[in-house]
Structure formats: structure tokens, C-alpha cells
Design goal:
The protein is mostly helical. Helix content is 71%, strand content 3%. The protein contains 8 helices and 2 strands. A two-stranded antiparallel ribbon has the order 1-2. Helix 2 crosses helix 3, helix 3 packs antiparallel against helix 4 and helix 6 packs parallel to helix 8. The longest helix is centred in the N-terminal third of the chain and has 29 residues.
Length: 218
């Protein structure tokens, strides 16, 4: 499988649309343990990205530059902590595909591992803290393991998404240890972490994209 610069742009536009669809749900989750604005914040960031995709990046053929600008644009649009986290993820990912218009499976694995691990490093969080790392860390570990075993990107990514979903769902039973929600202590138990949830949606959207691309090519 290969992903072109056009594919990257199409995928990012799918995220824009998905975030708009899930905006209210993400805000609902955030109202239980935070300010209630996570969906709005994500929407602001991705709408800014959408504007760049339709204009400055419309003819761009460098996949790394696209990912880099997506990260920087999201950071500039979003003032909350999620801005630097996603910016780090997409910018770290960009380094793995530097000067490439077409990205192959080994590079895709490297991209997503850099994305997930960059966010973990920037956020200084661990599994169990009730953050997006509870989604990203099991995703990265499973992707790396299964791809080494099978050399089949879609199969490995699919299993990684299953692990990401399990990690995301685990946040419901966790006490928040990071951010404003940590002030709630035990009262944060029983609610999904909105950041872990939106991270899962972003990762899962890529699986939907590559599966649809595979069907279209067959």
C-alpha cells in the first residue's frame, strides 16, 4: 500500500468532517470532567487546518510538508494543551516521511509511531493517567508488534485500532491524574476521557480511509 500527498490531504479532510460530527459528543464528555469545550476546541483547530488544505496546501505534493503545516496550523489555532500535543504528533510524524510525496507501509508505521510517541513525550503522561496516552500507547505498541509479525499494514493497523479502543474505553474506570480534571479525584471515575476519545476517532478515521482506498483499488 502507498499513500500519496493527495491521500494525506483527503484523510485530513475526513478528520475535519468527523470532528464536526462528534463535536457535541466530545463536549458532552468534557462537561463531566472538564470545561465542556473539548469538541469546540478540536473543531476550531481542524477548521483552521481545513482552510489551509483548501488554499495553501491545495497543490502541495510533499507529504511531510502537509503534515508539518497541519501540526503548526492546529497549534496556532488552539490555545489549550491539546494544541501543542497534536502539533508535536504531526510534526514528529512529518520527520519520518521527509521529502516524500508517496509514503509506503514501512514509512506509515514509522509515521504513526512517531505521532503517538511524540504526543506521549510532550504531554509527559503515562498509561493510567486518564489521558490520550491511554489510547495512543497501546495503539503504538500493537502497531509495531503486529507489523513486524505480518508486514501487512492494514491488518496490523486494524489490530492497533482495537487496542486503541480498549485503551480509550479503559479511561472510564480511571482517576484523572493530569490537567484540570485531576482536581476531581475519585469523582472523575465513570467518565471517558474526551482527549482519549478524540485521539481514538482520529486514529480510527485513518483505518476507515485506508480500507476504503484498498476497496477502491481492487
Amino acid at each position: 500500500m502507498e499513500i500519496t500527498a493527495r491521500d494525506f490531504k483527503d484523510y485530513f479532510i475526513l478528520i475535519v468532517n468527523m470532528i464536526e460530527e462528534q463535536k457535541d459528543y466530545l463536549c458532552e464528555l468534557d462537561r463531566r470532567i472538564g470545561d465542556g469545550d473539548h469538541g469546540v476546541t478540536m473543531s476550531i483547530g481542524w477548521q483552521a487546518v481545513h482552510e489551509r488544505l483548501l488554499n495553501e496546501l491545495a497543490e502541495e505534493e510533499d507529504s511531510a510538508k502537509i503534515s508539518l503545516i497541519v501540526g503548526k496550523t492546529f497549534l496556532n489555532a488552539v490555545g489549550s494543551s491539546v494544541g501543542p500535543l497534536y502539533a508535536t504528533g504531526f510534526m514528529r510524524g512529518a520527520k519520518t516521511i521527509k521529502n516524500k510525496s508517496t509514503v509506503h507501509t514501512d514509512d506509515l508505521v514509522a509515521y504513526w509511531l512517531a505521532f503517538a510517541r511524540g504526543i506521549k513525550e510532550r504531554g509527559r503522561s503515562e498509561v493510567g493517567d486518564k489521558t490520550m496516552v491511554d489510547t495512543l500507547e497501546p495503539f503504538a505498541k500493537m502497531l509495531e508488534t503486529k507489523y513486524k509479525e505480518s508486514n501487512d499494514f492494514i491488518a496490523a493497523y486494524s489490530e492497533a485500532i482495537a487496542a486503541a479502543k480498549e485503551g480509550m474505553e479503559s479511561t472510564k474506570d480511571l482517576v484523572s491524574r493530569k490537567g484540570r480534571s485531576s482536581r476531581l479525584g475519585e469523582r472523575s471515575v465513570g467518565a471517558l476521557d474526551p482527549g482519549a476519545t478524540s485521539a481514538y476517532f482520529i486514529l480510527a478515521t485513518f483505518l476507515d480511509f485506508v480500507e476504503a482506498k484498498k476497496v477502491k483499488a481492487s
